[in-house]
Amino acid sequence: MTFAHTLPGARTRVSARCLRVDGVSEHGYFIAFEGGDGAGKSTQVRHLVEALEAAGREVVVTRQPGGTSLGAALRDLVLHGEAITPRAEALIFAADKAQHVQEVILPSLARGAVVVTDRYTDSSVAYQGAGRSLGAQEVADLQTWAVGGLAPDLTVLVDVDPATGRARRGGTHDRMESEADGFHAAVREHFLAMAAAAPERYLVVDGGAPADEIAAAVRARLAHEGLL
Ligand code: TYD
Ligand 1, closest atom to CA 65? Predict the structure, then answer.
């Protein structure tokens, strides 16, 4: 078992067998799925949760935005609201994460569960930092503060090119999806750059491959980590 890494600048204290984030010990394992719209993350989350549960793990599956009741209201606001400026958008996503980490993720990790989240901080760095051009570092700093420095043990990046993602979604359903392909291309490039900068913390899979193949690659990586 490995323990979650911390994002740069986090207030943490690492001891031999546990890591503390903002005063909370955590012993579980934290997995984030990331990728562009229409990448097929949700399908992969389902496959992985089934495999982990079959292996006898307690699994908490959740998502951002919207993993808490405050988050559900923020999700509606940020995905379907009107006239939201880029900085306001970044702050709404950050508020969702702050609530989600304290209310759901940290308590689950503290009792030893495997937490699988559909999107986490990298989404904000890619969408708000690169897509909205707010600056990746500034958005990463905001995210680090919002989540108290908690980073996933493993991030699975389901990579998809914007045209494939758009075709799979079958149209636009929210503010982010209705952005032009150039926006989604910038988001994709930034996701790939983050993964390339820290390969030990990422698994990059081709979202265009058959779902079963992707699921097998994810299971193989988690078997390597000792979880399956
Ligand atoms: P959702 O319907 O959950 O999309 P998906 O199924 O692709 O995950 O919508 C979430 C949208 O919000 C998605 O377009 C990505 C975007 N997003 C951000 O821009 N910043 C963030 O921090 C997060 C978590 C999501």
Answer: 24
Q: Please work out whether the CB of residue 65 comes within 6 Å of at least one atom of ligand 1.
A: yes
3-state DSSP assignment of residue 81: coil
Residue 170's pLDDT band, with cuts at 50, 70 and 90, is confident
pLDDT value at 7 more than 90: no
Asked if the peptide bond before residue 152 counts as cis, ω within 30 degrees of 0, the response is no
Q: Quick one: tokens of 54?
A: 């079959």
Using the mean position of ligand 1's atoms as its centre, give its distance from the Cα of residue 65 in Å: 7
Which atom number of ligand 1 is nearest to the Cα of residue 169?
7
Is the distance from the beta carbon of residue 143 to the nearest atom of ligand 1 less than 6 Å? no
The answer, yes or no, to whether residue 26 has pLDDT greater than 90, is no
Residue-wise pLDDT tens digits, 182-200: 999 999 999 999 999 999 9
Higher confidence at residue 223 or residue 8? 223
**162, amino acid identity:** P
State the DSSP H helix or E strand holding residue 156, giving kind and residue range, or none if neither: strand 154-159
Mutate to test the pocket of ligand 1, among 43, 75, 123, 134 (most ligand atoms within 8 A of CB): 123
C-alpha angle 148-150-151 in degrees, rounded to nearest 5 = 145
What value does the CA radius of gyration of the chain take, rounded to a whole number of Å? 17
**Rounded distance between C-alpha atoms, residue 158 and residue 169, angstroms:** 15
pLDDT band, very low/low/confident/very high, at 24 (cuts 50, 70, 90): low
Q: Is 124 in the pocket of ligand 1 (CB under 6 A)?
A: yes
Confidence band of 2 (pLDDT split at 50, 70, 90): very low
